[in-house]
């Protein structure tokens, strides 16, 4: 039933419709003025109050905006506009869960509102609520079947719930309507290739290939077309045609190792060497083909081929030669051959200046780069003393090559001499002050040695001059710096600062996730559908990145240290204090808590003042440089768990992730979850050094817990028995 207070006189009703248009056209000041005009005569009109709040929010008056929206909602709880506006505020704050609740409430009162359904679909995609997305996209299509983007949106929704065959039906039903959305050749091509992507995902490669051949004249992305053509031919076992297709791709890009590997997979093993030799004759500059030749060669054949690669690299002075060769050291025979060759080169170059007895004279730099290679080889084998001896010899030969000092610093780091390593790396930096890479390397080594202030100063040589180096690195989302400085603070037990860095990196990943929001509608308009679906799938696995894993590990270690520190303090107090002392301590704690609260209030005021100043000066100021917000947490274990939870799903085979989870759960006395973490570690690597110690700790903790629920105890015992049996 409609709210009688919602009805406005005709003049004000028209004004209200105008202010809705003002919002759509982003004319916020004009809309605010119209809203205030309506509220003069109708101060309790809920929808106008809500719209006023929305305009204020968009004019950077967030608190006032929320206040008006809530006021409007209380005046008219059954208004879909009020609920929609409330959802828009939450969405602007990236609070997607609350926004979704508001949209759901809005749809209760107007289940077919086009704008709410559209916004709800975008939100469901962002939250990965794909099953509900199919329903919302279906309703949108029913509301406006003539809109091509709604057909495409439904097709994508079906693809995201792993029902590409339904997506194909949707595309086939309105092929002409969908094609009308394409305004140029590129968009038509993308739409056709997306259709082909759905056919591929059904596993029907025959249909996918036939469709690919049909659309060839209209496809502008020729490279993608050729790749799919070759792939489908390979999947269908049409080897001769697939070979021809892959040869065309290799001719266009002989450096793409995936193409060459795909071609090799079509041949018998005994044909591999001859095929690679043929390809290398055609494309002698292809490092991909050269690598595969060495990978597949054996014995004398490998020796002949690797000798040519080594001599060429040492003659030209390629610093990355060892990095490209060390992959072959996994094979004992290949490792022996390479090491014997290089050792022979070193002796011959020192004595005769040649690579061998009958060889031509080499330039003096050949000896330098051979010494460099040998030093890196010793470092790889953890032979630190030998590595240092050889690299010092190289530096004595040519003391002006930056790479030599960098390698010496690396050897010292591996030997555990981080202070010396940082000094050598600084020497290297001073040899070329214009090189950003060596500057960053030097800063990294300074952080490893604990010199955080000096590292920030060094990095500041290449950051913007109008902001502090750390702020600029944060703005640039520099992940290596956040993990390295966070760990540097962690080693110094400066947990607040460490957590500040780790949380900064976590925010980068939140930003990456939030950044996709606008693309949910943009990609449907621009028809970049293949890239869009790939991006969504990439985002879902983003937190498996090594930098996030490092930050999560560091953050959990810091929070565990805070939790243990707090527990030790509590145990010490309860063990060594009399009742009178405890009373004094409680009074002292109350006073400290009151002072902390007063300080917090004062800090809030200071932060507001700083924020206002920042807005005026447009210069960012760090209001919590010590990370006290994180240091003073009352729930360190729960905070630590926020880092681990997504990783338990995304990195199920990572032992470290489950080890971190175990450490949190056992401290929370959640023994069933702890034993499950232990079970996951056992499945991946039961021989892990951490496993036995953790198993003993868990059994001891469970045994000591006298009041444990018998059902939980039984479940733990069963899980432990399974672990031991496996």
TrEMBL record:
Top-rank taxon, per record: Eukaryota
Gene Ontology, cellular component aspect: NatA complex
Basic residues compositional bias, start-end: 583-593
Gene3D superfamilies with a match to the protein in the record: 1.25.40.1010, 1.25.40.1040
Region (Disordered): 573-593
SMART domains the record matches: TPR (SM00028)
Pfam family, one: TPR_8
TPR repeats mapped onto the chain: 80-113
Keywords from the named record: Repeat, TPR repeat
InterPro entries linked: NatA_aux_su (IPR021183), TPR-like_helical_dom_sf (IPR011990), TPR_rpt (IPR019734)
Protein name: Uncharacterized protein
Gene that produces this protein: PARPA_02045.1 scaffold 2397
């Amino acid at each position: 039933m409609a709210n009688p207070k919602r009805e406005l006189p005709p003049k004000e009703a028209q004004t209200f419709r105008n202010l809705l248009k003002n919002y759509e056209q982003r004319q916020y000041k004009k809309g605010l003025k119209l809203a205030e005009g309506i509220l003069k005569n109708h101060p309790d009109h809920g929808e106008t109050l809500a719209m006023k709040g929305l305009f204020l929010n968009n004019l950077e008056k967030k608190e006032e905006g929320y206040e008006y929206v809530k006021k409007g909602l209380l005046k008219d709880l059954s208004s879909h506009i009020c609920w929609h506006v409330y959802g828009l505020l939450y969405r602007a704050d990236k609070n997607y869960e609350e926004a979704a609740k508001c949209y759901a409430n809005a749809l209760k009162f107007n289940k077919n509102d086009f704008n709410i359904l559209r916004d709800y679909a975008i939100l469901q995609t962002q939250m990965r609520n794909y099953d509900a997305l199919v329903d919302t996209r279906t309703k949108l299509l029913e509301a406006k079947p003539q809109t091509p983007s709604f057909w495409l949106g439904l097709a994508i929704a079906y693809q995201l719930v792993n029902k590409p065959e339904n997506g194909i039906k949707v595309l086939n039903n309105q092929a002409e309507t969908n094609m009308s959305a394409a305004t140029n050749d590129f968009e038509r091509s993308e739409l056709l290739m997306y259709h082909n992507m759905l056919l591929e995902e059904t596993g029907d490669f025959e249909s996918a290939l036939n469709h690919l051949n049909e659309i060839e004249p209209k496809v502008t992305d020729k490279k993608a077309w050729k790749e799919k053509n070759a792939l489908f031919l390979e999947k269908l076992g049409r080897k001769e045609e697939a070979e021809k297709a892959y040869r065309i791709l290799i001719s266009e890009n002989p450096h793409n190792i995936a193409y060459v590997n795909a071609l090799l997979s079509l041949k018998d093993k005994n044909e591999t060497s001859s095929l690679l030799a043929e390809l290398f004759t055609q494309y002698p500059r292809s490092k991909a083909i050269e690598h595969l030749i060495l990978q597949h060669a054996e014995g004398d054949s490998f020796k002949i081929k690797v000798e040519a690669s080594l001599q060429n690299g040492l003659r030209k002075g390629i610093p990355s030669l060892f990095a490209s060769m060390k992959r072959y050291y996994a094979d004992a025979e290949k490792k022996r051959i390479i090491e014997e060759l290089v050792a022979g080169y070193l002796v011959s170059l020192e004595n005769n200046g040649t690579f061998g007895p009958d060889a031509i004279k080499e330039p003096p730099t050949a000896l330098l780069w051979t010494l460099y290679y040998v030093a890196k080889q010793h470092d790889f084998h953890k032979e630190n003393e030998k590595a240092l001896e050889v690299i010092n010899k190289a530096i004595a030969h040519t003391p002006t090559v930056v790479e030599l000092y960098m390698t010496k610093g690396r050897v010292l780091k591996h030997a555990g001499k981080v202070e010396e390593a940082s000094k050598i790396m600084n020497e290297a930096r001073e040899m070329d002050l214009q090189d950003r890479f060596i500057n960053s390397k030097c800063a990294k080594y300074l952080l490893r040695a604990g010199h955080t202030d000096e590292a920030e100063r060094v990095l500041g040589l290449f950051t913007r001059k109008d902001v502090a180096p750390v702020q600029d690195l944060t703005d640039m989302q520099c992940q290596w710096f956040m993990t390295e400085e966070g760990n540097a603070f962690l080693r110094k037990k400066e947990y607040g600062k460490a957590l500040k860095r780790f949380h900064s990196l976590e925010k980068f990943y939140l930003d990456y996730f939030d950044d996709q929001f606008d693309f949910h509608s943009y990609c449907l308009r621009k028809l970049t559908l293949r890239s869009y679906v790939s991006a969504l799938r990439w985002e879902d696995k983003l937190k498996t990145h090594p930098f996030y894993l490092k930050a999560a590990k560091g953050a959990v270690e810091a929070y565990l240290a805070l939790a243990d520190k707090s527990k030790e303090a509590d145990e010490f107090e309860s063990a060594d204090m009399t009742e009178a002392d405890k009373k004094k301590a409680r009074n002292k704690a109350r006073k400290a808590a009151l002072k902390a609260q007063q300080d917090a209030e004062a800090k809030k005021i200071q932060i507001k003042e700083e924020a206002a100043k920042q807005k005026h000066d447009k210069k960012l100021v760090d209001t919590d440089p010590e990370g006290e917000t994180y240091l003073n947490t009352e729930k360190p274990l729960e905070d630590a768990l926020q880092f681990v939870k997504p990783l338990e799903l995304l990195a199920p085979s990572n032992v470290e992730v489950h080890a971190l989870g175990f450490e949190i759960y056992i401290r929370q006395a959640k023994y069933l979850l702890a034993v499950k973490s232990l079970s996951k570690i056992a499945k991946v690597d039961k021989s892990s050094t951490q496993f036995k110690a953790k198993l003993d700790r868990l059994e001891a903790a469970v045994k000591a817990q006298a009041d444990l629920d018998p059902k939980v105890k039984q479940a733990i015992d069963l899980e432990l028995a399974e672990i031991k049996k496996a």
